[in-house]
Amino acid sequence: MVSFPLTWCDMELRGSIDFRWLPETIEKVFISITYLGEEIDLTALPQSLKKFELCVNPFVGSADLMHLPGNMELLVLAVSKLDGTVNLEHLPCKLKTLSLYQNYFSGTLNLTKLPDGIQGMQLWANDFSGTMDLSNLPASLNELVVEGNDFSGWTDFSQIPETLKILDISDNEDMEGEVVVQGDLVVIAGRTKVKVIE
């Protein structure tokens, strides 16, 4: 059965959106630069969905990431007004990219139970806090961007995977530690207390 993507971009759409009306066969949803707001129910997304992007919309409220479609490969919830804590312990096993940047998410993050195949995580410009545990990052991960949060304390960077190419921890002023740069890794650590050893 043919599945057509839903694309709403740069439209003067207003009000709320109910994802229960999405077709059960849809695989891609892209909603960007609208006036759609209010809360979103990610638990209502169809199981067929592989790529879901909400970017530059005034959505508010929390984001339940524990009951996402099992086939999801890409999730973007960016440049919105979403807040609350985020649970990363039950993400879809097929997820490759997670982008939650420029919101108001807060609390600590558990990065020890990520999907084995995840490749990119853009979590910058939020209010995440606490100490980051990088001891069990997936070997598939090649980009981790947590710039502009409130992470703090001593962080052990000795076990980051060799596949990691970009590590941006800048603008976490109370984060401490040492990063030894190996291979093609690029480390951005401005405005932190982290020592980068080339």
UniProtKB/TrEMBL annotation:
Superkingdom: Eukaryota
InterPro entries for this protein: LRR_dom_sf
Protein name according to UniProt: Leucine-rich repeat protein
Lineage, top ranks: Eukaryota, Amoebozoa, Discosea, Flabellinia, Dactylopodida
